[in-house]
Amino acid sequence: MTNQMAEQLEEQYNNFVELIKNNYPLENISLLFVPEIMGYGANLDEKLFNLNELYEGWRIQKEQSVGLDIQFEIKPVYRRISNGEKVAIYVDEVNIKMTVEGIRHENELRLSIIFEFIEERWICTHFHGSYGLGVTGDSWAIELMKEKNHELQRMVDERTIQLQNTIHELKSTQAQLIQSEKMASLGELTAGIAHEIQNPLNFVNNFSEVNKELLTEMNEEIIKGNYEEVKAIAKDVIDNENKIIFHGKRADAIVKGMLHHSSSGSGKKEPTDINALADEFLRLAYHGLRAKDKSFNAAMKTDFDPSIGNISIIPQDIGRVILNLITNSFYAINEKKNKSEEGKYDPTVTVSTKKINGSAEIKVEDNGNGIPQKLMDKIFQPFFTTKPPGQGTGLGLSMSYDIVTKGHNGELKVDSKEGEGTKFIIILPIKS
Q1: Which CATH number is associated with domain 267-432?
Q2: Gap between the Cα atoms of 346 and 330, Å rounded
Q3: Contact 354, 427 (CB under 8 A)
Q4: Which pLDDT tens digit goes with each residue over 384-423?
Q5: 104-136 as b/e, with b when 16 or more CB fall inside 10 Å?
């Protein structure tokens, strides 16, 4: 190689070093690199394939370096001229020391540069920076990598066991929370059921006492031989017995409904009169709240579509959903009533059903304060509640959503206007 070529190669190398130190003018990089320059940094995402990418990368690095105390120490490792003295390979070790926010950092970088003699001048065609693994005598550090792999695998195994234990604990906690929410809804039912069951029991007791008196009177008429009167009394006794049977069955149905609701159930769908179910839980929710707050009063409106008939659902699950929605509505109107002037607000909850395109729509609507728009996206999230601490688990609407959407392939939607009220809509397929 001629002296002139050697001097030019050394000059280009020095220019490259100045670029690393952010001292080389970026507008002159076309004199140092080929247009299709290929460069790789020490990190996987540091790569470039043309002058524009190189210019932008170094511009950003230069901006980030402003004000930092940076020192470079460059040690030549390897020099080779090959391919008929047209290709030069330079390998250096670069020690970079910098102070960032008062903390001193030091990095060891291995830098490889390839220059090619093109059109009578040396120009850089490729460079690559990398961090050494710090293992003497083994540039690939195979054994070190194996050790790291074994250590990582051990850590993964330990973490897997921890995650499995966590999942088991979460499932157990989930089951407890679900049962807790079921018992909370059962508590809402208890007072309402007590009121509902008292009515038929009163009828049973009253008609039983009347029949006792009638039977005593009938014995007296038999002794007198007044058989026409005996027949009339007997007819009254039979009529009363029919009423006793009717109200006894009514009480029995209420008790069975309570047991059905409190149990986990078979999980099987069965034909259910959705209108009767909605009406039942409307009254139970109302009396449940009345039992806790004697001052509570509200108008209850119903509009049931008789054409729906029976639909295939899991009754205890859909019952919980309806109860939860109605209870929330009663809570909302009671809150508004307590803050309204006497006589200026008429608290009302409306429950309606409608058959629409092969689906049954159950709507629970109130004229309470409504839900703020910013909270609408969170309304079905687990543990989210608008009620004060201690007055809601935040699981009712989340469980209701899962029961309707996952358990019954239906929809649960909410529409609310702040200050005007809220409307929850359950849509269930009539044919399962």
Answers
A1: 3.30.565.10
A2: 12
A3: no
A4: 566 654 455 455 788 888 889 988 999 999 999 888 899 9
A5: eeeeebbbbbebebeeeebbbbbbbbeeeeeee
Cα–Cα dist 176/425, whole Å: 28
Within 8 A by CB and 6+ apart from 342, the residues are none
Q: Residue 356: is its pLDDT beyond 50?
A: yes
Would you state the structure tokens that stand for residue 7, as one six-digit string? 């001097």
Instruction: Quote the pLDDT of residue 366.
Output: 94
Distance in angstroms (rounded) separating the CA atoms of residues 365 and 300: 10
How far apart, in whole angstroms, are the C-alpha atoms of residue 343 and residue 293?
19
Distance between CA atoms of 192 and 196, rounded to whole angstroms?
6
CA distance 185 to 403: 14
pLDDT on residue 286: 84
C-alpha to C-alpha distance for 362 and 426, rounded to whole angstroms? 5
Which residue shows structure tokens 């849509």? 427
* CA-based nearest residue to 15, from 130, 127, 132: 127
Query: Is-contact 124 34, C-beta < 8 A?
Result: yes
**Can you give the C-alpha Rg of the chain in angstroms?**
42
Contact by Cβ (8 Å): 125, 96: no
pTM of the model: 0.46
How confident is residue 140, by pLDDT bands cut at 50, 70 and 90? Answer: very low
The CATH number fitting domain 3-130, selected from 3.30.930.10, 3.10.450.50, 3.40.190.150, 1.10.10.60: 3.10.450.50
Give me 165's structure tokens: 């234990």
Q: How many residues does the chain have?
A: 432
